[in-house]
Amino acid sequence: MAVQKGEEKDGKWKIPPQEVIDLMSSRGHRLHHFVWHQVRNNWHLYPEDIKVKISALGWTPGGDPMNPRPAYYKGDNRSGRHPALDNNSGEDFLYMHRWMIEQVNEILSKVKDPHYPKIEGWKELPEPSDKRYPVPPAWFDSERLRQVKSDEFFKNTMQVWEKYYLTPDNLRLLSLGQLGSLIETTLHNQMHNRWSSDPGTVERPDPTSDDPEGIPKGEWDKPSYDFLGDTYSSHVNSRFWYIHGWVDSCIDRWQEVNEIKEIIWKGKWIGKIPQGESSGNMLNMFHKPDHHHDHGNEVTEVVRLIGQCGIFSDFYTEWLK
């Protein structure tokens, strides 16, 4: 059966116009999204000398070298970490992805594709029986991955989380930063895992201390590399916008329940912006590499630095445990 315009062949996933895909798959945007997630998620693990060098490049999580806002703190639990619920890093998570949605919507308003006029996330998570949004099979020999893709996990864990984040009494007890942190580290991460598809037989290499040259250019920057489980590629995948559209709606729900007319954001870190650009111009920021050569070199240098200590994480890291 031929693939209809605006749909993927498996289910009824709407595909953004090519203008959006081209921007999301550009190397500049891939590196920015990748580094933003890496430094937030792993700051608590980096050696002090690496932190100093990353900060000197303007990539301290939260933006303030004197007061970093990592997404996790060290912990003595099985994972060795726990979500940072007291530093507004959860607001950074919500604000960053809301900003991405707003910028893509601006592009869509200019493209005027009737099949995809704007980003629209799920109103509620699709049931396992929903043929519009099928769950791809597990391709990796991992009990954890099979569990996340199971009907039981959806019913007993994901729907329980979803109900918690939709319950007004709970939203009244949580700050926006706490809500963002909890959503990111529970439901959001597992949505990426649950609806991810086989990325292929070759795994994207991370830089190492022996070869710290950053992520190789070429096949990993093609629009076809859109693995939902990798922060270098997840935002290229059409399913990304269903997930983050749902996450974004939680901000509005929290605001309404708490009767807040205007959110005064305490966490607005979207990563370092190229010199001479405002945060409102994503197209110039990431789609003109010659114009922002220095910025690209800085981001690449951050990738090299974290490659030297060999500390990376993605949504799928736990599959290997």
How do you describe this structure in short?
The chain has one domain.
Basic shape? globular
Spell out the helices and strands N to C: HHHEEHHHHHHHH
Count of runs of 4 or more consecutive helical residues: 11
User: What's the number of extended β-strand segments?
Assistant: 2
Strand order of the largest sheet: 1-2
Q: Approximately what portion of the residues adopt beta-strand conformation?
A: under 5%
Q: Biggest β-sheet, characterized?
A: 2 strands, antiparallel
Low-confidence runs of at least 5 consecutive residues: 1-7
- Rg calculated over all Cα atoms: 19 Å
User: Whole-number average pLDDT?
Assistant: 88
User: How many domains would you count in the coordinates?
Assistant: 1
Quickly give the structural class.
mainly alpha
Give the N-to-C terminal Cα separation.
39 Å
Assign a percent range to the helix content: 40-55%
Task: Describe this protein's structure.
This protein is mainly alpha-helical. The protein has one domain (18-320). Helix content is 45%, strand content 2%. The protein is built from eleven helices and two strands; from the N terminus they run H-H-H-E-E-H-H-H-H-H-H-H-H. It has helices at residues 18-25, 27-42, 48-56, 89-111, 143-148, 151-166, 168-173, 176-194, 239-257, 282-287, 293-309, and strands spanning 72-74, 81-83. It has a two-stranded antiparallel ribbon with strand order 1-2. A hairpin with a 6-residue loop joins strand 1 (72-74) and strand 2 (81-83). Helix 4 (89-111) crosses helix 8 (176-194) and helix 4 packs across helix 9. The radius of gyration is 19 Å and the shape is globular.
